[in-house]
Amino acid sequence: MEKIKSLADLKRIKENVQTKIDLREKSEQVENLIQIKVAMATCGIAAGSKDTMNYFIENLEKNGIAAVVTQTGCMGYCYAEPTVEITKPGKDPIVFGHVTTERAEEIIQKYLKNDELVADIIPVNFETI
Amino acid sequence: MQTLSDHILDIAQNSIRAQASRIEINLQENATEDSLVITIKDNGCGMDEATVAKVTDPFFTSRTVRKVGLGIPLFKQNAEATGGTLKIESKKGEGTVIEAKFGLSHWDRPPIGDIAGSIVILVSANPEIDFIYHHSTAKGEYTFDTNEIKEILEGVPLNDPEIVMALRQMIRENIKEIT
């Protein structure tokens, strides 16, 4: 990746991204994208959710996965932070717990690519603390 | 919290929950006064006096999913451990200002950490909010303003992965010059 320091550098990157977005919009609707929400409250941040979110942002495209990565507040599963809620189009959301960067990679390779479930899923009927 | 950038990311979440449309984050390193002042200012819903008095209590929270609220108490504890202070000014309907002062050279001061990472997470996850980050040191100052960035991007989303990584690198490079 070329060095980006000024607004002029950013403008150059923007031109490339714009072209990719135009191509993407022709083939995909935003509602058909995978939604990934990383819990980003005090408990999540202290447990490393910032690294988890950065990992998803940096590695989804490399793996050819079109997804929207965003943040959410505390879901109440502080004991299992970092927690991540993933919604695949047409499917119920699944909350994954203890999502370190290693687990994030596992989620990308197994769940996002092949629909295989991984460990530390928080069942929907679990009570919050 | 291992770094001050984690604290900033955490405290700014309160501003987001308070429905702020503009959040200003200011980090001022002053070697002469041996201080590092972090200010987070928002135009969110604000708090009444009774709430302000309670927010540094770890067993007070406005959330319903849990019974503790540790963000501000931990921030205060870390500031006070370096001989610093934490001040909160808030007015209902107008917004909140949180100012934490740390002893710059104090042994117990957490490192600043990946501030560019924190700012970019806030910006990319909340593209509708205007963020201004200002960092000043003896060597110079740097301001990152999402209004300026949005103008350059001309509709390209702030949360596009390539843009996110570019913004992070841009902030990092500029901060490197003044620290």
Summarize the structure in words.
Chain A has 129 residues and is of the alpha+beta class. Chain A contains four helices and five strands; from the N terminus they run αβααβββαβ. Chain A has a five-stranded mixed β-sheet, with helices on one face. Chain A is globular. Chain B has a single domain, classed as 2-Layer Sandwich (Heat Shock Protein 90), CATH 3.30.565.10. Chain B is 37% helix and 26% strand. Chain B contains six helices and six strands. Chain B has helices at residues 4-17, 49-54, 71-80, 115-125, 146-153, 161-178; strands spanning 22-30, 35-42, 85-91, 95-103, 130-137, 140-145. In chain B, β1 (22-30) and β2 form a beta hairpin. In chain B, α1 (4-17) packs parallel to α4. Chain B is globular. The A-B interface holds A 1, 3-7, 9-11, 13-14, 16-18, 20-21, 40-43, 45-46, 50, 53-54, 57-58, 60-61, 68-71, 73-76, 78, 128-129 and B 1-2, 6, 9-10, 13, 17, 63, 65-67, 69-71, 74, 114, 117-118, 121, 124-126, 148-149, 152-154, 156-157, 159-167, 169-170, 173-174.
Supply the number of structural domains of chain B. Answer: 1
What is the CA-atom radius of gyration of chain A, in angstroms? 16 Å
Summed up, the domain count of chain A is 2
Rounded mean pLDDT score of chain A = 87
Second CATH tier, the architecture of chain B: 2-Layer Sandwich
Any guess at the CATH architecture of the largest domain in chain A?
Answer: 3-Layer(aba) Sandwich
What is the first-to-last residue Cα distance of chain B? 22 Å
Any idea what the CATH superfamily of the largest domain in chain A is called?
A: Glutaredoxin
Oligomer: heterodimer
Approximately what portion of the residues of chain B adopt beta-strand conformation? 25-35%
**Secondary-structure element order of chain B, as H and E?**
HEEHHEEHEEHH
What structural category characterises the helix and strand content of chain A?
Answer: alpha+beta
What is the 3D shape of chain A? globular
Protein name (chain A): (2Fe-2S) ferredoxin domain-containing protein
InterPro entries (chain A): Thioredoxin-like_sf
Organism (chain A): Butyricimonas virosa
